[in-house]
């Protein structure tokens, strides 16, 4: 697959725009899924995933063909998603730099204002419930958890996508799991 | 649970990452057998993983590729131009130079409305008229801008008059060329020739080096 992708990239670099369509076909589900899980909204996810492909096209000459194309694409998409999430809530930077569980407490206090009452939660379909819990995670942990469990990527790949040291990625996944555990333990049935 | 060593929770995560060492795993297992709280913690974490992994795959909307292709920038020619500019820096510099030169010339033409001339000995200034008195010889070129020239004596060199006219007495004698420039295009042409001469002389100097 990588050989095919690199061939198409070379064609795009030579000015063959149509070769890019095949690249979009190959990766559209992956990118759309990441964006959807990060943003929790199909419409926005479509918007950002499209934007990610447009950026990839414009900057394709900066892609190093010795590396994995999907990693590069995921990086563009996750960065766009995180930008979008931050623009949506410009007032608080609670998930900025808080150590350990302290960060979780602060976040969950804020999240409490958006929290659905229990009877509403019970009505949610499982899939909506998953998306709801994911969307309550601070974006730092959300990106790591989404890439790990929904895209099923290796820790090494996640570290390359997020441009973070491996240790930081592990910490974020650990904290993400702990955060989810607290979210779910408040609600029975899960 | 507070009594439990913190590393136990850390081992749980190592276990979930599939990166636990043999010793850590043994320690975790023996601890879990004796500690109900940690057992519950481990269960909850496993449930979290199962819960998140239960997310269904989401497919991209139909027509996604077409939508992306429609959004791609169309100005290929624009990209081509900038690439060309990047690849030919000398030509780009030359083009920029010409652009600035020409604009400078036009503004100069309008701005330089005041009377000026080349300083030469033996020249007399009367109002906005340069006079070379009778019997006097001026050696060198003379350029007069926005003024007239009256020549009664001799000029041993070229005469250039910009926006002005010349009056010559019968005794007058000019050894060089005479040029009168009154129009914008003449003015431009004069500058181009001048620049051309300078470039040629520059290259000639280079060659002689």
TrEMBL record, chain A:
- Show the PROSITE patterns listed in the entry: SIGMA70_ECF
Where does the record place the RNA polymerase sigma factor 70 region 4 type domain? 129-180
Which keywords does this Swiss-Prot/TrEMBL entry list? Answer: DNA-binding, Sigma factor, Transcription, Transcription regulation
Q: Name one Pfam family in it.
A: Sigma70_r4_2
Q: Which Gene3D superfamilies match?
A: 1.10.1740.10, Winged helix-like DNA-binding domain superfamily/Winged helix DNA-binding domain
Would you say which domain of life the source belongs to? Bacteria
- RNA polymerase sigma-70 region domain span: 24-89
Give the matching InterPro entries: RNA_pol_sigma-70-like, RNA_pol_sigma-70_dom, RNA_pol_sigma-W_bacilli, RNA_pol_sigma70_ECF_CS, RNA_pol_sigma70_r2, RNA_pol_sigma70_r4_t2, RNA_pol_sigma_r2, RNA_pol_sigma_r3/r4-like
Family matches, as CDD domains: Sigma70_r4 (cd06171)
**Family label:** Belongs to the sigma-70 factor family. ECF subfamily.
Q: What is this protein called?
A: RNA polymerase sigma factor
- List the top taxonomic levels of the source: Bacteria, Bacillati, Bacillota, Bacilli, Bacillales
TrEMBL record, chain B:
- Residue limits of the Putative zinc-finger domain? 7-39
**Pfam families of this UniProt entry?**
zf-HC2
Superkingdom of source: Bacteria
Please give the family membership noted in the entry.
Belongs to the zinc-associated anti-sigma factor (ZAS) superfamily. Anti-sigma-W factor family.
Q: What is this protein called?
A: Anti-sigma-W factor RsiW
């Amino acid at each position: 697959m990588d050989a095919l992708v690199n061939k198409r990239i070379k064609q795009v670099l030579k000015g063959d725009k149509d070769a890019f369509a095949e690249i979009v076909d190959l990766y559209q589900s992956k990118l759309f899924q990441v964006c959807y899980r990060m943003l929790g909204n199909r419409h926005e996810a479509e918007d950002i995933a499209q934007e990610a492909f447009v950026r990839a096209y414009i900057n394709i000459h900066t892609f190093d063909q010795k590396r994995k194309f999907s990693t590069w694409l995921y990086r563009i998409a996750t960065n766009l998603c995180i930008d979008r999430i931050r623009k949506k809530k410009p007032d608080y930077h609670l998930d900025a730099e808080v150590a350990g569980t302290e960060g979780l407490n602060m976040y969950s206090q804020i999240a409490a204002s958006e929290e659905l009452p229990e009877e509403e939660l019970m009505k949610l379909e499982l899939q909506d419930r998953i998306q709801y819990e994911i969307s309550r995670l601070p974006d730092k942990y959300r990106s790591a958890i989404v890439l790990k469990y929904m895209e099923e990527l290796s820790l090494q790949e996640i570290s390359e996508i997020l441009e973070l040291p491996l240790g930081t990625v592990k910490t974020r996944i650990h904290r993400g799991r702990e955060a989810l555990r607290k979210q779910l333990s408040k609600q029975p049935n899960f | 649970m507070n009594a439990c060593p913190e590393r136990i929770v850390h081992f749980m995560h190592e276990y979930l990452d599939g990166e636990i060492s043999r010793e850590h795993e043994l320690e975790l297992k023996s601890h879990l057998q004796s500690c109900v709280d940690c057992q519950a913690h481990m269960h909850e974490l496993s449930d979290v993983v199962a819960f998140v992994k239960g997310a269904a795959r989401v497919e991209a909307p139909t027509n996604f590729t077409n939508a992306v292709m429609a959004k791609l920038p169309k100005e290929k020619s624009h990209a081509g131009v900038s690439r060309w500019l990047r690849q030919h820096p000398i030509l780009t510099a030359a083009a920029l130079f010409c652009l600035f030169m020409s604009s400078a010339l036009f503004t100069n033409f309008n701005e330089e409305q005041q009377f000026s001339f080349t300083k030469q000995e033996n020249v007399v200034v009367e109002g906005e008229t340069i006079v070379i008195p009778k019997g006097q010889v001026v050696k060198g070129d003379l350029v007069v801008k926005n003024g007239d020239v009256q020549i009664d004596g001799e000029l041993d060199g070229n005469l250039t008059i910009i926006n002005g006219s010349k009056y010559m007495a019968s005794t007058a004698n000019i050894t060089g060329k005479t040029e009168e420039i009154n129009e914008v295009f003449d003015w431009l042409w004069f500058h181009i020739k001048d620049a051309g001469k300078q470039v040629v002389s520059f290259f000639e100097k280079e060659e002689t080096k």
